């Protein structure tokens, strides 16, 4: 059962890395790998914040 109370604080999900065949290699701006790196950086910030909240519990 999914919790919906105020205490529900799930760990953020990591972004899915693109497969090697998703990059065409033609230097697109932004490349799928550029987008993934941005999403990964955001995930790391959200994960660190989540971990800090878990330490306070």
From TrEMBL:
Composition bias, Acidic residues:
1-10
Q: Which InterPro entries match?
A: Oxidoreductase-like_N
* Region Disordered: start-end pairs: 1-22
Q: Which Pfam families match?
A: Oxidored-like
Q: Where is the Oxidoreductase-like domain?
A: 12-51
What name has this protein been given in UniProt? Oxidoreductase
